[in-house]
Inverse folding.
């Protein structure tokens, strides 16, 4: 269910929320919706429709999530001249080394 993670307590026939400690009777009448199915663990997550709708309504009321961080600005660096340009700036043509 959307507001907490509930575990079924078999001795008391209730579902208890892990964080809120909220108790929901297992025989409570209400429509359920399949939220997720995990085939490997053989688990089915069900949610009460009224709680799921309340959670969805609250999420819509919050509005879109926007970051408060300013976007990074790219710094334009002067490109380093290539090998030919560096060689042409030196005085005269280069002659063979070590001759």
């Amino acid at each position: 269910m959307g507001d907490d993670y509930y575990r079924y307590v078999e001795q008391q026939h209730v579902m208890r929320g892990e964080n809120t400690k909220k108790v929901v009777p297992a025989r409570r009448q209400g429509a359920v919706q399949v939220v997720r199915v995990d085939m490997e663990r053989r688990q089915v997550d069900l949610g009460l429709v009224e709680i799921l709708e309340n959670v969805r309504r609250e999420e819509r009321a919050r509005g879109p999530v926007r970051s408060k961080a300013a976007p990074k600005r790219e710094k334009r660096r002067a490109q380093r001249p290539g090998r030919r340009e560096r060689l042409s700036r030196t005085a005269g043509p280069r002659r063979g080394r070590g001759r």
